[in-house]
Amino acid sequence: MTVLVLYATVEGQTRKIAEHAAAQLESLGQGVVLADIREPGFAIPGRFDGVLLCAPIHIGRYPDSVVQFLIDWKAALADVPTAFVSVTLAICSKDADDRAEAEGLPAKLEKKTGFHMNRVHHAAGALKFLEYDFFKRMLMRQIAASEGGPVDTSRDHEFTDWDALDRFIGEFADDVALAARA
After folding, report:
1. Sign of the CA dihedral running 170, 8, 36, 83
2. CA distances from 106 to 16, 24, 113, 118 (A)
3. What is the rounded distance in angstroms from the CA atom of residue 68 to the CA atom of residue 119?
4. Domain boundaries in the chain?
5. Topology of domain 2-125+160-181, per CATH?
6. Phi (first) and psi of residue 17, to 5 degrees
7. Predicted confidence (pLDDT) per residue in 33-57, tens digit
């Protein structure tokens, strides 16, 4: 069994999450092909036993490449177990409205693309202060301060719950194995 793990990334945290998920799937006995969704030439989804897509939310939306991929490949994706990891800092916000909005974005993606993911996991991302330009660094520091979060801009701060991600990946691996036996 082979799983296609695709990701889009802006500052690298979603790539890190996808790489971790790929390693976890391999440790569970799955073959894995890992690729950036924006790179041409990745394998065709219909040739895999499952597809895991990892995508960040920035400014309230997913990258256009993710939207277009789901529109283009929804028929092939419907034939195999699929899972989606939605990555955003808003999921760990102290504000219930911010969290609710983040939790609702996969449903908006589904409505926009016409494709329903079998499983969805919300993963917190990271504050990549070292990646940001001066203005974004100051803006993100201000947002972090208002949330009671870290304001040390001399380093990055990661919020991903790796154990929760591993549990999600384990459930998805079970889906793939079950579908392969059917």
Report:
1. positive
2. 20, 23, 10, 11
3. 19
4. 2-125+160-181, 127-159
5. Rossmann fold (3.40.50)
6. -65, -45
7. 999 998 866 556 668 999 999 999 9
